[in-house]
């Protein structure tokens, strides 16, 4: 089963008078309920690709389909609604709201999804427990370590039970020991929730955990590695 299909996707950025190609004719499929890593050097186009998959940005050419839904067929309101219900995001810089506690940060997407208060509390407690932060619920982000902040961000990304979780270099700002613990945690949650995870990373520890790896260079795919042995 395919969770994500990219078909002839291209994206360019306008810099002054010139268009700089960031992605050219990207076509591949991401398997559902797998852990896929987008791997490539700095500037190869990983963040741009994740933003297109997540509907944060739109391609200049080609199509992105999530569970069969063509994102281009959705207007901006429908797209943000689709994102809120179906997709969880984890960022390199955690992107927690600094004035909200760990509990409130995780609760935030549930408020947007209009989940009733009692169900929200239960879900947030369950998630903070799952990421090992039950005792830090009342802490603000600046009262947490980097690894703890990223664990809050993971809990927040999973709160609304998305089927697709996208993470942009989630271990880039963590020391290697903390980064490995975060990957193990995400791997466990991915298996438990049967969600599809797509990460961008050039961290070998992240790559080693992947089911599938998509290698990108200069905005184009150079290889797709399926860990069940098939090489495309
Ligand atoms: N807003 C922008 N305006 C102009 N050019 C951009 C913009 N964002 C990205 N680019 C260019 O597009 C290309 C791809 O960038 P992207 O951020 O997707 O790469 P990346 O693989 O995620 O890099 P990194 O690992 O350093 O985050 C790069 O050449 C970059 O300079």
Automatic annotation (TrEMBL):
<dbReference type="GO" id="GO:0005524">
    <property type="term" value="F:ATP binding"/>
</dbReference>
<keyword id="KW-1003">Cell membrane</keyword>
<protein>
    <submittedName>
        <fullName>ABC transporter ATP-binding protein</fullName>
    </submittedName>
</protein>
<dbReference type="InterPro" id="IPR027417">
    <property type="entry name" value="P-loop_NTPase"/>
</dbReference>
<dbReference type="InterPro" id="IPR017911">
    <property type="entry name" value="MacB-like_ATP-bd"/>
</dbReference>
<keyword id="KW-0472">Membrane</keyword>
<dbReference type="Pfam" id="PF00005">
    <property type="entry name" value="ABC_tran"/>
</dbReference>
<keyword id="KW-0067">ATP-binding</keyword>
<dbReference type="InterPro" id="IPR003439">
    <property type="entry name" value="ABC_transporter-like_ATP-bd"/>
</dbReference>
<keyword id="KW-0813">Transport</keyword>
<dbReference type="InterPro" id="IPR017871">
    <property type="entry name" value="ABC_transporter-like_CS"/>
</dbReference>
<dbReference type="InterPro" id="IPR003593">
    <property type="entry name" value="AAA+_ATPase"/>
</dbReference>
<feature type="domain" description="ABC transporter">
    <location>
        <begin position="4"/>
        <end position="232"/>
    </location>
</feature>
<dbReference type="InterPro" id="IPR015854">
    <property type="entry name" value="ABC_transpr_LolD-like"/>
</dbReference>
<keyword id="KW-0547">Nucleotide-binding</keyword>
